[in-house]
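Input record, target 12 of the design panel.
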């Protein structure tokens, strides 16, 4: 039952971070948009051309978020769940990660993002790529893989606490 509540709190916190940020300034999250929308924004002069999908600032922001989650997972697993061993720590952390990642893909991306006018960038509103469900599912698969080293690190920290 504890795992259920941790997953629920995780998706609520994730939503409270992602939704307001995206609604406030969709261009700030342009690296998370489908490629055709990013390219159209470049053509319209709304964003500078990038050789890479994410800017250095994006990578720093995402790196800090991963470090934050590693520390949060480790503290949660050790002090709330009482886990001291590596494998249970990893499996619990990765379960929470997967729930949040697939909630992000299915609920926030495929349901909310694909159907919300507030996330549309001026000049790109009519693009069919806003409803590119495959893009969001592929990105979630990448996210599940990125969770492996983060959750392994969290489990390692648990064993060191």
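The sequence produced for target 12 reads:
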């Amino acid at each position: 039952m504890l795992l259920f509540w941790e997953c629920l709190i995780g998706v609520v916190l994730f939503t409270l971070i992602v939704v307001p940020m995206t609604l406030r300034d969709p261009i700030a999250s342009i690296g998370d948009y489908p490629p055709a929308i990013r390219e159209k924004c470049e053509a319209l002069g709304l964003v500078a051309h990038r050789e890479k999908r994410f800017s250095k600032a994006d990578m720093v922001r995402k790196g800090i978020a991963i470090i934050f989650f590693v520390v949060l997972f480790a503290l949660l697993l050790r002090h709330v769940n009482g886990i001291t061993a590596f494998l249970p720590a990893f499996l619990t952390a990765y379960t929470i990660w997967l729930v949040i990642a697939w909630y992000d893909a299915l609920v926030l991306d495929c349901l909310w993002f694909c159907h919300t006018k507030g996330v549309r960038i001026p000049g790109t509103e009519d693009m069919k790529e806003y409803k590119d469900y495959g893009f969001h599912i592929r990105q979630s698969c990448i996210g599940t893989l990125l969770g492996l080293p983060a959750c392994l690190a969290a489990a390692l920290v648990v064993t060191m606490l």
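Residues 2-160 form one domain.
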